[in-house]
Automatic annotation (TrEMBL):
The keyword Transmembrane applies. It is a multi-pass membrane protein. GO terms for molecular function: lipid-linked peptidoglycan transporter activity. This is FtsW/RodA/SpoVE family cell cycle protein. GO terms for cellular component: cell division site; plasma membrane. The lineage of its organism: Bacteria, Bacillati, Bacillota, Clostridia, Lachnospirales. InterPro entries: FtsW/RodA. GO terms for biological process: cell division; regulation of cell shape. The chain crosses the membrane at residues 12-29, 41-60, 66-84, 96-114, 120-139, 151-170, 219-248, 340-360, 372-393, 405-429. Keywords: Cell shape, Membrane, Transmembrane, Transmembrane helix. Pfam families: FTSW_RODA_SPOVE.
Amino acid sequence: MINLIVEISKYVMIFLMILYAYLNFRFFGVKDEEKQNRICVEQNFLMFVIHFLAYLTLYLKLEDGQILMFYWIQVFFFLAYLILSRVFYRNISRLLLNNMCMLLCVGFVMLTRLDPDRAFRQFAIVFVSALVTWIIPFIIDRTWQLARIPWVYGGIGLLLLLIVYVRGITSYGAQLSISIGGIGFQPSEFVKISFVFFIATMFYHSVEFKTVAVTTAIAAVHVLILVASKDLGSALIFFITYVFMLFIATSNCFYLASGLAGGSIAAFLAYKLFPHVQVRVSAWLDPWSDVENKGYQIAQSLFAIGTGGWFGLGLCQGIPNKIPVVEKDFIFAAISEEMGGIFAICVVFICLGCFLQFMMVAVRMQAVFYKLIAAGLGCVYIVQVLLTVGGVVKFIPLTGVTLPLVSYGGSSVMSTFIIFQVIQGLYVLKKNEEEEE
């Protein structure tokens, strides 16, 4: 009987996830605000049903009473977060809020299945992040002075990256994190945000060649320190974000072409200089040649995705723990194996929906400073998503970055909360301006 319930729940969750992803894009085609709100309410209903079915499955398979308690704690948190967000910020983007909660739901479900202890820790981090970042939309809506301190953003970012380079903890061949009071965090996750603010403030004041040259030099220092720390995934995110923001600010195709050419040369040099990059490229090109060593991780990922097929094996029916670091870099493979390829694709569509909302905010903003912030943070977010998914499915070499809001990782969760709340602040700002007009 339990197996029948689990099997039926699997197909119901896939169907509901398809509906959620459809509404995610249907929202953009509806202009009437009342209809948009109705779509958001329907999304909330679908999210809570998917969440319930997933934890019902986990409880039936694992028979652990703590899972039920953890489920109800999450339900209370999501209800409170959704309601209070609407109460305190009347003009908040409900679509972005829903998608954020949906991605968190998927992350909690998979982490509970993979490692309940880490799921509990992830929830604590999410709760703290939600509280700490709550005030950000209020600040964005009222503080123009954010555009006046470019060198504060640049200086803080460079200082944090230098500390990691000098005193950072090495993990998987790269210096990624530092430890303060026994608590480790990854500064590059937060420097991504200060980096975007630095570029936005510089180009807000001027896009003359001198300013472009100075900004490019500082951006290059950010990237070079990351390269020296062997954090090439973050370096790639920084580089692409800078080129994207430079093109938006100047509309100069020469800058875009030069950036792409320089990036290609830098990628080639990184391959020649760093042995662990050569290992990752070799594993990407032919993981089967050394499947027991350097190709093991990507091979297990591909096995998991292939085994899951379109509809998945069902929660607790696969063996995703055979993939090294599955709860971080490879959580998309675990989703594909147990929830199915269709469910995993819908997760990507939800991420794309978030990116579209970011870009729509950027397009609607009249102030160049705010426009560049929205576009830059949107680029940071979607590039990280694409690098993670692309590495898992062997479309590109592994870069060691996480899937925002879904993968395990405190620094990633906190920085993503900040990114989403900054965008919410810009959205609220624009909606308030439109109402005043």
